[in-house]
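ESCALATION

Customer reports they have been waiting on this structure for their group meeting. Please prioritize. Original submission:
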Amino acid sequence: MKTLRRIRTPLLIPAAALSLGSLAWTSWSLVDLLGAGAIGLTVAIGADVIWGSVIVAEARGVRVAGRRWVVPVIGIVAMVAVAAFLAWHGASRDSVPMAVVGPFLPLGAKVIWMLALADMRDPAALTEDEQLALAEMERGLVFEQAQHEMKMRRLAMEGDFLLAKVGVDFDIELARQEKSAELWRRRPIELPTAIERPALGPGEDPDPDPDPDGGSRIRTDPDLDPEKPSVDPEPNPEDALPLPAGPMTTQDAVRIAVEGNVTDPDAVLRYVRKVGDTKAKPDTVSRYLRKYRRSA
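Update from on-call: job pushed to the front of the queue and completed.
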């Protein structure tokens, strides 16, 4: 936040002039004090850079560890050190005027710069406490924004996980239904288990003629009354039950048999194997038969 006016103070001109003179005097004094020739310029230039950097930092309002007064204190300490070197240079030359007047130039430049910076400050600018309060609020806002973004990212990740899980469950259920439909389509073409014939003995005809005499042989039966009309054998009770359009489960077949008044276990078993599972177990059929008998 700006604390300096756009219109520069007139004190900038004398401050800049004194700074140039101070830099020249300080550089020459340090080179002469060190007696190292041209290499001594490095030390002199380094001292001038330190002094100029402190002035720029103070003008920009730089804070060290959140405190603004640290930079002006560093500038004062640097000026005292430069003044001490200049006084030492005058003493080494056995010149009291040089030792007394020499430090006056950088100290005067420092004072003029302090006045110029104070004059350049905007009286309507925020105070230090107000700027710190605003900075604290800004940091809190940035933190809350980052925290909100993290929460939104977490919610987005959880949503993606749930969508992926639902998609997998849907694919599994769809595959299961397709397999069930395929099995149901294939059940009508299932063939019953072939009836095994007993092994034939030596000399037995695998396909004997039921009437070798061509129907001319008279069959005799001591218990058969020729005057009594013949009676067809009793039909199976399960033959009267309806035949479904498609395969049925064992439980449904037993239920239909009981509803049709067929309760004989053998008849029910034959009906179940006829319309449902050709390999239905008698124990399973008996269990369902007892269940529907009790509920009837």
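Sent to customer with the following note: The chain is about 60% helix and 0% strand.
Escalation resolved.
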